[in-house]
Amino acid sequence: MAEHPVLVTGATGKSGRRVVARLRAAGLPVRAAARTGEHPFDWHDRGTWDAALEGVRSAYVVQLDGTKLVRPFVELAVRHGVRRVVLASGRGIDDPDYVRDGGGVLEGLLDSEAAVRGSGLEWTISRPGWFAQNFSEGFFADAVRAGELRLPAGDGAASFVDAEDIAAVVVAALTEDRHAGQVYELSGPRAVTLAEAVATISGATGRDIRYVPLSTEDYIAELGGQGVPRADAEVFADVVEPLGKGADEYVSDGVWRALGRPPRTFAEFAASTAAAGGWPA
């Protein structure tokens, strides 16, 4: 399949752009598909789907949260002659008590997994936990740069996974034959509390960063004071809730099984991100 472009949806996202970079570094042709960027692709515009799939034999599918669009997309992929698909999913989706899911995110993920399993394609599912990169380019990044992370998560911990490891697993599944039918739950090598995480970043950057645990109501009120509608603030609180419950403390073996090596530590993530200027003052 080396002469065919590898389709990467969500190509500007945390995992997608790293997958694109690794495939290109290996000399493989890539169709980097996203709403903005090299190849226009919009989950809500089915008129963009055929062009994305034309001539493709393998694809990394990063789904749109709260939708069930992967199923028709995979059906179209089969008609285009795609043979291999790697689906980005998430840890905790088979635990009904993992999180309150008012937006239908878990329902959508489960439908997407069922769709690829029943597609007749060679499929692999990536189930990463909390990204370490949430501290540098995601959910927590602005607060970390400001020097204070305030969340309703108590002393909860998570086995944060480096997006570089996620990308390495995805590229292996896209380019090697031994990953068909595998579900890879991905995590770091040990659980890290939020206080430990910001202390590690402090050590790597030489800056004073602290974590302040809040009650859920105080967190929602603070977001409200920043102009966030209460309904949205409650969704953010729901997203953070698994951290406070320790629902992501457990360590998964997906990186080991897929790559034959241990996952990167949070300290390694922090050091490499700091060295690359990931937390500008």
UniProtKB/TrEMBL annotation:
Residues 10-176 form the NAD(P)-binding domain. It comes from the Bacteria. Gene3D superfamilies: NAD(P)-binding Rossmann-like Domain (3.40.50.720), UDP-galactose 4-epimerase, domain 1 (3.90.25.10). InterPro entries: Ergot_Alk_Oxidoreductase, NAD(P)-bd_dom, NAD(P)-bd_dom_sf. It holds the Pfam family NAD_binding_10. PANTHER family: PRESTALK A DIFFERENTIATION PROTEIN A, PTHR43162. This is NAD(P)H-binding protein. It comes from Saccharothrix lopnurensis.
